[in-house]
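#struct-help
A.M.: can someone run this one for me? Single chain, 454 residues.
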Amino acid sequence: MAGLWGGRFTKETDDRVFAFNESLSFDKKLYRADITGSVAHATMLGKQGIISKEEMESIISGLNSILADIENGSLEFDPKCEDIHSFVEANLIKRIGDAGKKLHTGRSRNDQVALDMKIYVRNELDTMESLLKELLGVFVKRMEENTETYMPAFTHLQKAQPTNLAHYIGAYVEMFLRDRDRIKDIKKRLNLSPLGAGALCGTTYDLDRDYVAQLLEFDCATYNSMDSVSDRDYLIETLNACAIIMMHLSRFSEELIIWNSNEYRFVEMDDAFSTGSSIMPQKKNPDIAELVRGKTGRVYGSLMSLLTTMKGLPLAYNKDMQEDKEVAFDALDTVKDCLALFTGMFATITFNKDIMAKSAMKGFTNATDAADYLVKKGMPFRDAHSVIGQLVLKCIEKDCSIEELSIDELKELCNMFDEDIYDAISLKTCVERRLTKGAPGAIKESIERYRKLI
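D.P.: on it. Structure tokens below:
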């Protein structure tokens, strides 16, 4: 099989070479983008008088019929075709005759595939942005429900200070808001049309590249034809954004896995988002969170694969670039699945509020507030820090919390303690008096901001 270049070759392509070279098995995902781009190209060729109006209309009608037949299942992908571009073109010629052979006038598969990938990725980014919006909406809803759900906040996986669950979730809202901004930023740089760049040095045909860009909702045509066919920066940026999204999902998944453990029992996973054990009847496993955590490495691998592919390529197009598709398709599908499943899991999760509050009370998370209490009484902070350190040591020896000590026991260490210490170090006070911007006491203002942003 000599494919699209039969005139130059006298021998058929070796079957093994064809199998190694073909991409239809995976780039068939681009069928809608390919046909959309071809309709715009044909429209422009007709407008410029490069093909006749009748030929333009015949081509567009044929392309639309191919799209319809693919989507209704009556047209199957032919494994004898090398890629999605040759498949569409072969079917077009079969349907409308010689007019179909004129579709490729003024373009190369190099600029054609560059266009297809940009259209496809742009649509995928729109979908991902929508999924992020849905996830953020669930986060904010759970925040609103948990402004008075007290829990420990951690550093080094050790209890540090008390906070509320809304504040904890809000940290992840900030992460995913940045992810959404990254996607918007990528779309700005992506949104230039490469069609008309030809193989690498443009064409002698009088193409209106900006007209095609307008038809396809790009900002304008690209500015350098060699860069147009060899640029994969937008795809690397997309995979980088995917990797960061997965990192954020993985971090939260890790937290939920820990919180779901018997030692913590902060959360109860919904049955619909959990699995059991084939041998241990008591088990209820957080498999969705674990799989999200596991699939993060898979998306990282896609990013590193494409970076490695591109790192030594001279200008302009090289066949190596065909390797961009499988990793991109897999990463985009993985991220979409993980976002959707994490959203469902988090929307249905049950928070064990009493256990969370008790955990905060048992971990000396109010020690900083006890030190601040002495500072407000006039003691230098370093001295207060030392006093409370001794107080914590005493509590460890007695196996109790600070608030469980009597006022006499507190005064033994420092006579500046008074009865108001108990209110000063209560979970409610510790959390609600932290009113600086971004702190848990100001969480309602944060929620209002998130509502506006989402």
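A.M.: thanks! The mean pLDDT is 95.
D.P.: also worth noting: The domain at 12-105 is CATH 1.10.275.10 (Fumarase C; Chain B, domain 1).
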